[in-house]
Amino acid sequence: MTDVVVIGCGVSGAATAWELARSGLSVTIVDRYGPAAMASGWTLAGVRQSGRDPAEIPLAIAAVKLWENLAEALDAPTGYTQDGNLRIGMGAGDLPALKDIAETGAACGLPISFLDGASAVRDVAPAIAPVVAGATFCATDGHADPDATVNAYVAAARRAGATTLFGEPVIAVETAAGKITAVRTASHRIATGAVVLASGVMGDDLLAPFGADVPLDVKYVTVIRTKPVASTLKQVISVADVRNAEAACAGRQQLDGAFRFTSGIEPWSGAMHERNGRPIIAPPIRALAETIESFGTVVPAALDAEIDAYWCGLIDQTPDSLPVLDRVEGARGLFVARGFSGHGFCLGPITGKIMAALVKEEQSPVDISAFSSSRFAKAGASAFEPVTLHG
Ligand SMILES: Cc1cc2nc3c(=O)[nH]c(=O)nc-3n(C[C@H](O)[C@H](O)[C@H](O)COP(=O)(O)OP(=O)(O)OC[C@H]3O[C@@H](n4cnc5c(N)ncnc54)[C@H](O)[C@@H]3O)c2cc1C
């Protein structure tokens, strides 16, 4: 018998497991692959408060406060650095939306400003080519190393007593009289009174019996990583695609000097295969070419670096681009943290605290009323505003 089973060992599940284990509960983390095998490994790993829905900004602010001391708390490096985020507009038509983002962020307490013109942007980030029209700049945003962070959480959770079961999916969540009793994998039945489902794009099959599936539109993003080169870009950048209310491309230079950059989001065919026990989605050459073209136009130094790796990552997009952080009404002891819509890496540390508070029937450290699981069923998925410029 374990007090809590956490399904999914991305940043959300690993952070939740650590918070629960260090508060004295027995915890088992189950992942069909292993730590950071899906979005939390595929990610760009920007740690960004700016450019979010106002409902989500307090979560991101609370998360950044935790990021600032996370490596110490976990006693392991996270690769976190706080050098700011630039959301770039390429043309004059993009600038009103960027000014709105700066105003909304400032009203929520962020140190965010609007930079008018290429030279203002290049004063902050000389690596940006003089082809841009302006940008927002939020100084307390940053980035981190996603694999190091998730592994640091898992190691700290283990030191606090958590156990792990990797390489097997949970295939059923069992209940009796409306209460969680166990989870089953192909070879294990783990008796438990509580389950946190932090399973990213997967897991609808586990929630559907309780009427709690989250309406997700799963899309893909192409990611390219180069070999390390001299450090020229400290900020995370994204290029606003105002027409589609998304980011056209985004990128950063890792602390080791490697550029890591992404495309915008595209519809996903569903094709995925496994290699060495990890899920793989290969990008079409067209997407690679477009990603290189978009990012290289803005950060030309990236074009001289050698390609080291490329992959696709999946985005768990909800109708309002906000996550579900909630208990499940139909099954006492079942909790869900999914649907981060491409923004959940930054939120990991606060997601862990929120989910641990829900399991322990304590007050959430941040208002989570906007993230209920029932909001889509009540309003109908189509009732939500189209996605705003989150990127
Ligand atoms: C290309 C890309 C760029 C991104 N950029 C950013 C960014 O700059 N900043 C940001 O904040 N966010 C970003 N995101 C989003 C962010 O990475 C995710 O929101 C976050 O990592 C989600 O973490 P998670 O733990 O909820 O899910 P995941 O990391 O997807 O973890 C879910 C885990 O559940 C496991 N699982 C699923 N089903 C089962 C089952 N039945 N049994 C057992 N295990 C199961 C999977 O194997 C997986 O390991 C990006 C995402 C992508 C793909």
From TrEMBL:
| Name the record gives this protein | Oxidoreductase
Organism (species): Acetobacter nitrogenifigens DSM 23921 = NBRC 105050
Residue limits of the FAD dependent oxidoreductase domain?
A: 3-358
List the record's Gene Ontology CC terms alphabetically: cytoplasm
Example GO molecular function term? oxidoreductase activity
- InterPro entries named in the record: FAD-dep_OxRdtase, FAD/NAD-bd_sf
A matching Pfam family: DAO
Whether Oxidoreductase counts among this entry's keywords is: yes
